[in-house]
Write a structure and sequence with these properties.
Blueprint lengths: L1 H22 L5 H12 L3 E2 L12 E7 L6 H6 L3 E2 L2 E8 L10 E5 L3 H11 L5 E5 L11 E6 L2 E6 L1 H6 L3 E2 L1 H4 L3 E2 L2 H5 L1
Parallel strand pairs: 2-4, 2-5, 5-6, 6-7, 8-10
Antiparallel strand pairs: 1-9, 3-4, 7-8
């Protein structure tokens, strides 16, 4: 009898422990997105002159709401991208957004995003949207899109090429590619 109770206890305990592990998410959405942003920098090449405007640092800018808190700063702390110190900068007005290599836009409506794209035209800034509707179709380069409970992204490589940004084929292979045909519709 004692053995039966012990087996039941162990089964329930293991079941509860296993269930809590199953329900526990190892990383938050924005921990994953901060890692993606950092790694985008490793798989994209910018023209050398784009670093003059950022004092030879690699700058990840955030425009709109900051959903990361301190997560992004912690992710890039003491790290480099393309042999440059990584800095995170929060932009409050549109005129500042040219001063970075990666610009993350969060909770920005599509009309405001289009204004940002017009300001950035030719500045070699990799724009990354946080699930912004029609982001890549309207002139953005990368947009996070939730699919199958995993955070994936889409890329408009045509815009990247126009901005003189070269995206690695390894990164392109992981994304949904937005084509000119999709933009027309």
């Amino acid at each position: 009898m004692k053995l039966l109770i012990l087996h039941i206890f162990l089964a329930v305990f293991i079941g509860i422990a296993g269930l809590s592990d199953l329900l526990a998410q190892p990383y938050t959405e924005y921990e994953l997105k901060s890692a993606y942003l950092f790694n985008f920098g490793k798989f994209v090449t910018w023209p050398e002159e784009s670093f003059v405007k950022t004092d030879n640092c690699f700058v990840i800018g955030i425009y709109g709401k900051n959903p990361f808190g301190d997560i992004l700063k912690e992710t890039v702390k003491n790290k480099t991208i393309q042999n440059r110190i990584v800095k995170v900068v929060f932009f409050e007005n549109e005129e500042q957004v040219k001063n970075c290599q990666i610009l993350f836009l969060s909770e920005v409506n599509p009309a405001d995003a289009k204004k940002i794209f017009a300001l950035l035209n030719g500045s070699s800034v990799l724009t990354v949207g946080d699930q912004i509707e029609d982001f890549c179709q309207n002139g953005g380069v990368i947009n996070f899109t939730p699919q199958n409970y995993r955070f994936r992204f889409e890329i408009n490589n045509v815009i990247a090429i126009k901005e003189r940004i070269v995206i690695s084929s390894k990164l392109l292979a992981l994304a949904k590619i937005i084509t000119e045909d999709e933009i027309r519709f």
